[in-house]
Design brief:
With 737 residues, this protein is of the alpha/beta class. The protein is 50% helix and 13% strand. It has 35 helices and 20 strands. The strands form five sheets. The protein has a six-stranded mixed sheet, with helices on both faces. Strands 2-3-1-4-5 form a five-stranded parallel sheet, sandwiched between helices.
């Protein structure tokens, strides 16, 4: 058998080996330390006779790392350059390259790979092996390909020190940097797992990372999910009913009414790993971060890359996807509105439909239910309408929104985004009713069972109660920090604050998760509008809905009183005490309030501060910023700007999440800019705004949607559970039957 370590326990040993005692032990008794390694590896094995195949650019350290991994495993080590190519050709690699030229060399190299076979070995590929498709397919049949991902600047520095100025495939007129960048597409095609390698990481550390990555690849049992309301005793009795990423994507809400969270928490990145991403594009950062959060047994790296490329490749108007713009002083805007529906919801909802389509079983139809306070609806409808036709036939989406609780342009957009598998229903109530109704439908086992038996259709959720919605949001918070580092505004490790307009707590929770994963965020500032239940809660520890009525505001996406994702954060700071979370939310449901214990409130206030903004101050901020900079904030961003001005101490940069494009709220913006005559037609309002040559320009996607005919057609229903269920059944009958 091909033995590998059960590596997580051993990683604790290697971390503490930095202490002088362990370091002396390793130096004085290397044989004993090697025996510890071998004893760990002898008790756990890979399936079959798999090889560990190290892949990466020249200078990545494949040969050195391969020897260390082989020594730790006590397995044969094969260096393709020295042990295969030169032996086969009976000449050096450089001589062969000079003899046959670039193109023929790659072909000859591939032929040599096709004739090579091994098992239970550690194999170090050449930097150009991945450019030969047939050769790599042959190698992958019996191996786990580990990509040693080293920043291009580091590789160039290493090659320079090695006095290497040309590599295979580099034609005259093509720089070394260009050919290294060109090769990355081939590395990304073939790897199973990735290991991030910074510039100053020792080969021994990289070898440990390789073993850790292989262990994770082979053991999906380590990455399970639990409900925020499950007790430890119940989890111990239900060990056989593990939930994995694919399960929680499909199910959305836990059966006990709680929200799914990873049982072992989120992965941690070292400072060096984060720094290795400063040069990366947004798509590259997303790939690296999400690979760590989604087990390859659920979505392989190659499929995940395809999904990310589809989500962000052509659907965003800005090549940087989520650019960071300096506003004034120490304030920076994270622009999250460059997606097709002009809000931050696009970051998740251009990706989640494809994740969902990949994860669900093919034997069942799915109806995705979503409640929206404004932006989610159009983003969900647009995202699911972009699925392949075969997926549209088995996946439909129904969007419930407060009929009179969104902006006119938001409503026109949601109705205009309806497609053959995507519908909107206006509900004569507020967002809290829509969200609560969906939760009640999901936990009504009689009703969901009836839909499955009668119509062969299962229900799923696309709100931020679905775990997959949160992960892409972590990416843009991390990326914003890395952009400030890349631009030289701060060195890595210097803190920043973030200020986020907050209603359902998903966006700010993603920032807190980014902080847990190693991004140096000091404080997360929660910005509320006049529906300031969260501000009161963060300041006092009392979540109190008694006597509160939802106030319609200029920032409708945060017109929310019941913040769903707050439950995930409370579960986190309560050390996964599901019983306590259940108690708190039962009290909220039955009595309309709950209060945190003092120790939990202190934990919360280490991460969060909060403030709120009046309607007048919101409009004044829009006018002031436009007057001084020519830049137009949307109403939600203006709420965050007002709160940031009041609460941030200016000792570090603050990143304000600009969560939507101002075009979605044209009447409020025109009012803020003190334009007297406002046409009630949404399209006319956008044309009027455009005439001011604002920064940024009016959103093209909104203009295109509003130009469509038939935007007035949609269904409207009363705030009644039976009516919502009736609409669901009608949709299922019309689409799937």
């Amino acid at each position: 058998m091909f033995h590998v370590v059960q590596y997580r326990p051993l990683r604790l040993i290697t971390q503490t080996s930095l202490s002088s005692m362990c370091l002396k032990f390793m130096l004085s008794r290397p044989v004993a330390f090697a025996q510890i390694w071998k004893s760990w590896f002898s008790s756990h094995s890979l399936d079959g006779n798999k090889n560990i195949i190290l892949m990466g650019p020249p200078g990545a350290g494949k040969t050195t790392v391969g020897r260390i991994v082989g020594q730790k495993l006590d397995y044969p080590v094969v260096d393709i350059d020295d042990d295969v190519l030169e032996t086969t050709w009976n000449m050096s690699v450089s001589e062969k390259l000079q003899d046959v030229g670039n193109e023929q060399f790659l072909e000859e190299e591939g032929k040599a790979l096709l004739k090579f076979s091994a098992s239970r070995s550690v194999i170090s590929l050449t930097g150009s092996n991945p450019m030969h498709s047939a050769g790599m397919q042959h190698m992958k049949k019996n191996g786990i390909v580990v990509y040693l991902d080293v920043p291009t600047t580091v590789i160039m520095s290493r090659l320079k020190s090695m006095k290497v100025d040309r590599i295979v495939g580099q034609s005259p007129g093509i720089s070394l940097k260009d050919i290294l960048q060109f090769r990355k597409q081939f590395y990304r095609r073939w790897y199973d797992v990735r290991v991030l390698c910074g510039g100053d990481v020792a080969a021994e550390v990289v070898a440990e990372k390789v073993l850790d990555a292989v262990r994770r690849y082979q053991d999906s049992e380590l990455e399970t999910f639990i409900s925020t309301r499950s007790s430890r005793s119940r989890r111990s009795m239900e060990k056989d009913s593990h939930k994995y990423f694919s399960d929680v994507v499909t199910e959305g809400l836990a059966p006990d009414g709680g929200l799914f969270v990873p049982e072992r928490g989120l992965p941690k990145f070292t400072a060096g790993e984060w720094q290795s991403l400063t040069e990366a594009t947004y798509i590259e950062r997303a790939q690296v971060i999400l690979e760590r959060c989604i087990h390859p047994a659920d979505i392989p790296a190659s499929k995940l890359a395809e999904i990310i490329g589809t989500a962000y490749g052509e659907n965003f108007t800005c090549s940087k996807i989520a650019p960071v713009r300096h506003l004034a002083g120490n304030q920076f805007l994270l622009e999250l509105f460059h997606g097709p529906t002009a809000s931050f919801k696009d970051f998740a909802l251009q990706m989640v439909p494809h994740i969902f389509a990949y994860c669900i079983p093919r034997s069942c139809n799915y109806l995705v239910l979503v409640a929206t306070s404004g932006d989610t609806g159009s983003a969900v409808l647009d995202g699911f309408s972009r699925l392949h036709d075969t997926d549209k036939q088995r996946i439909a989406v129904m969007n419930f929104f407060p009929e009179d609780g969104v902006s006119p342009i938001q409503k026109s957009q949601m109705i205009g985004c309806q497609k053959e598998n995507a519908w909107s229903v206006g509900v004569k109530s507020d967002f809290d009713f829509c969200q609560t109704a969906i939760k009640q439908i999901f936990t009504n086992s009689d009703y969901t069972g009836f839909l499955t038996v009668e119509y062969g259709t299962a229900l799923a959720a696309a709100n931020s109660i679905n775990w997959a919605r949160l992960l892409p949001q972590i990416v843009y918070h991390a990326s914003a920090y890395l952009d400030l580092v890349h631009q030289g505004i701060i060195p890595f490790g210097s803190p920043v604050d973030v200020c986020i307009p907050t209603g359902n707590f998903g966006n700010i929770l993603a920032a807190l998760y980014a902080k847990m994963m190693g991004i140096p965020i000091r404080k997360c500032i929660c910005a509320s509008n006049e529906n300031n239940v969260l501000t009161d809660f963060i300041r006092t520890g009392v979540y109190d809905l008694r006597g509160r009525k939802l106030i319609p505001t200029f920032s409708p996406a945060v017109d929310i009183l019941k913040s769903s994702n707050l439950e995930r954060y409370l579960h986190l700071i309560a050390n996964e005490d599901g019983q306590l979370v259940t108690q708190l939310y039962n009290q909220l449901e039955n009595q309309g309030h709950f209060q945190l214990q003092k120790d939990l409130l202190e934990k919360l206030q280490q991460d969060l501060v909060a403030g709120w903004c009046s309607e007048e101050d919101c409009l004044a901020a829009i006018h002031s910023v436009y007057s001084t900079t020519g830049y137009i904030l949307d109403t939600h961003t203006a709420v965050a700007k007002v709160v940031a001005d009041r609460l941030q101490d200016r000792t570090c940069p603050i990143i304000i999440s600009s969560t939507a494009h101002y075009s979605k709220f044209a009447p409020a913006i025109l009012r803020a800019l003190r334009i007297a005559e406002i046409n009630q037609n949404p399209l006319s309002q956008l044309h009027l705004l455009s005439s001011y040559s604002p920064l940024p320009p009016v959103h093209w996607g909104l203009l295109e949607t509003l130009k469509k005919k038939g935007n007035e057609d949609h269904q409207v229903c009363a705030a009644d559970m039976s009516m919502l269920m009736s609409h669901i059944e009608t949709l299922i009958q019309n689409h799937f039957m």
